[in-house]
Amino acid sequence: MSNPQTLEDLRSGSYKGVKRLKLSANLSSFPTEIFSLFDTLEILDLSGNPLSVLPNDFSRLHKLKTLFLSDCKFATFPAQLVKCRSLEMIAFKNNHMITIPEGSFPRKLRWLILTNNEIESLPASIGHCHRLQKCMMAGNRLTRLPDEMAHCRKLGLLRLSSNNLATLPDWLFQLPELSFLSFAGNPCAPAFSDNPILSEIIWSELSTQHLLGEGASGIISKGTWKASDGDREVAIKVFKGEVTSDGSPMDEMNACIAAGQHPNLIDPIGKIHGHPEKKGLVLQLIPPHYTNLGLPPDFSTCTRDRFARDLAFSAEKCRSVLYGVADASKHIHERGIAHGDLYAHNTLIDNSGHALLGDFGAATIYGDHEKREAIERMEILAFGHLIEDLVNLVEHRLDGDEVLGEKDGYVIEGLNALHYKCTNPIVMERPNFEEAVEVLGGL
């Protein structure tokens, strides 16, 4: 993405013909110089500027597909965007936005990010967004979803955490492609008190070493715990405390604790006590030979993971990974927890095919929710996508006219049959995770 530092840079003409433009220069009004890129610009990022309105002729950028206006000052969603005929992705995160006028969403909208605003209702016209696949509304003030949203039949990911929803509508559990749902931190999700079994670990007993990773909700470091029985290497996750695109880090911590221990989960060891500013968890340290199974979705794949081009699996390794993920999912659903982000990029694997399901950032503790069976069968659609992805990796091993042996062919045939059941467009006709584990164990 081209990044001019000032308006003078943009006016110089050296950016003419670019497809991507990012500009953060304390702009209080939209720089009309951008219109000179009307025939090429596809991605525009003006995040971090004190902008509050867009010009009426904004649709002159007729090739624009992606618009980022996060951390700005838009109290009202700009109705001008409905005229942007190519616009597919819109982000207004952290704007203190209150209002979305009827008829503001462009018809080609696929990906909508309105995280951490003050929105109380969505317009009924969202039902016209028949291509909508990803809708991120965590950290708002929604009290209900418009019934017209039932027409968004392509919706695959919906983030509703940290709102004011007293109920979830029945039609939500009939959407044929919805597989990634989070609704923690709403009145419709049961209240949760921390698991008293998990030990508290004093911050002064911990020492951090190098960074292992950083996600939306927190920072994970390798560390040492000076336990009573000797020093122990651990992973230390310190939460940032802000509402992320998935939800509240505190809901993530509660779900991680409630999930408990399982051979295919990253085990929580204790809650951090006495940190000067933040909350955190001490977790099992994963050996370095474990690697991420997949890569997160990008603009084009939207709700589906990506994989390294040279990644290939044997049929047995494919079955082993899927068995581990399914067994972990069975375990958490038995405890009334939906993962909410059941993806390959949230799964670690080793060479033997042992899988560890991680990242509870979008998890919801649903307990005895009246829709608990539907919630589990909604999530198994995400598992069905994972089956499809991994079976494709087995096929990448084949060279030319090479075919699978009889045993491997039997495994793949069984996986394809399970994929078919898990992706049934009728939610309640899908299997649950207990049934999936039984099938995978039999292969």
From TrEMBL:
Q: Which InterPro entries match?
A: Kinase-like_dom_sf (IPR011009), Leu-rich_rpt (IPR001611), Leu-rich_rpt_typical-subtyp (IPR003591), LRR_dom_sf (IPR032675), LRR_domain-containing (IPR050216), Prot_kinase_dom (IPR000719), Protein_kinase_ATP_BS (IPR017441)
Q: Which Pfam families match?
A: LRR_8 (PF13855), Pkinase (PF00069)
Q: Domain named Protein kinase: which ranges? A: 206-443
- What is this protein identified as? Volume-regulated anion channel subunit LRRC8A
Q: Where does ATP bind?
A: 237
Q: Answer whether the UniProt record assigns the keyword Nucleotide-binding to this protein.
A: yes
Q: Mind telling me which SUPFAM superfamilies this protein's record contains? A: L domain-like, Protein kinase-like (PK-like)
* This protein's GO CC annotations: cytoplasm
> GO molecular function: any one?
ATP binding
- ATP-binding listed as a keyword: yes
Q: Which PROSITE patterns match?
A: LRR, PROTEIN_KINASE_ATP, PROTEIN_KINASE_DOM
Task: List the keywords (alphabetical).
Answer: ATP-binding, Leucine-rich repeat, Nucleotide-binding, Repeat
Originating species: Hyphodiscus hymeniophilus
Q: Which PANTHER family match?
A: PTHR48051, RAS SUPPRESSOR PROTEIN 1 (PTHR48051:SF1)
